[in-house]
Write a structure and sequence with these properties.
Two copies of one chain form a homodimer. Chain A has 207 residues and is an all-alpha fold. Chain A has two domains: 57 residues, Arc Repressor Mutant, subunit A; 140 residues, Tetracycline Repressor, domain 2 (Orthogonal Bundle), CATH 1.10.357. At the A-B interface, helix 5, helix 6, helix 7, helix 8 and helix 9 of A face helix 5, helix 6, helix 7, helix 8 and helix 9 of B. The structure holds a DNA duplex (30 and 30 nucleotides).
Amino acid sequence: MKSDDMKIDKRHLRTIRTREKLLVAAREVFLENDFQTTTISQIIKRAGVGYGTAYVHFEGKDELLIVLMEDVMDRFHQVAEQPFEPGTAEEAKKQIEQQATAFLRLAEQEREMLRIVEQAIGVSYIIRAKWKQIRERFIERISRDVRYAQGSGLARSDLNPTLVARGWFFANEMYLFEVIREETTASIEEIAKTLTAVYTTGLYEHD
Amino acid sequence: MKSDDMKIDKRHLRTIRTREKLLVAAREVFLENDFQTTTISQIIKRAGVGYGTAYVHFEGKDELLIVLMEDVMDRFHQVAEQPFEPGTAEEAKKQIEQQATAFLRLAEQEREMLRIVEQAIGVSYIIRAKWKQIRERFIERISRDVRYAQGSGLARSDLNPTLVARGWFFANEMYLFEVIREETTASIEEIAKTLTAVYTTGLYEHD
DNA sequence: CAAACAAATTGACATTGTGTCAATATTATC
DNA sequence: GATAATATTGACACAATGTCAATTTGTTTG
């Protein structure tokens, strides 16, 4: 029994090690360069394995990155699933701003990996699809929140919740990429505050 | 004099013709396929010219598309430059909704070309930069409008106009791409109406 | 108008990267 | 220790790019 497992493990171990070596190398090479300019040759060289080996373990560059993305994805999903049950409009506003901040902060923390992901989104169909998953999960979640706020009389009911949710998420997403590219001058707090203010109470004065 | 010009023209004419043949062919091939899968070989074959010729006239696929983009770009710039001088918040709202509608309608009209452009944005640095130009022009324009509305007391003054403008444009831009991909279920009118409503007066009730 | 010149066109070539697969090396089983 | 199963490998075929010396086409000049 024990020796049986050991033997199976020994063989699997090599596989796992090789896979791991490839992932470590891939992360390094991706981060040192771009997604586009990174080649399989660079990765296998760094990993110290043969060329064909990469294709035994992964379908190509794309899949390598997808596996590397997984941790980051999980963290995004966590942010998406934060509870939202405000009693008043003020509370809602506060919670929304907090979530926007958390979203942008995550971008800041995972900047390096997300820089690569953004590049890959442009090039790789499969990674674009993966990102879309995250997006749709957020949007679905936000739609629920909008419906909740409408149901409890906090939010106006004349607007399609899904359309509202998409618009709100899109603004946040684009700022996310600006944060990743370090293109933004304002602080995350100010961005979140501004977006939330417009989203919840609008830009124009009302009496 | 006349014959002089004629002779110069005759030589130039060949160049112009070749260039034109390449552009026509490129448009066709791009539209029949994707940006990524389109190759120079396909284009020159369609244009009926030699391989090297393409590189004499254009630096590569990217530049070919940039030239093809120009018309569409111009139309976007036109939309961006529509006047905005509302007297009341109601008027402002109306004008903003109109511009959002015009923006999305343009996407619908130029869908085919913009589909290629979107793909190219992901792959090509230079085309990404070109798109960024359009974006910044819009954002700058919107920032001015926000400042105007703030100055005339129509809009709240406690928010950074540029941050607001970016957020607003981002939401519109993402919907633009959804329209291009024909991924949206709602009509352009409803999208514009919803985005504008949230942007101008906010999602939450106020007394 | 024909020789010399200038400009535009061409396709073969070197280069770079991908993905596949038959051969080889390693590990497990009998 | 022989055999079978599995993992690894790098050489190869293929696809696309961008370059450049040679060729073709058009212009000028004596």
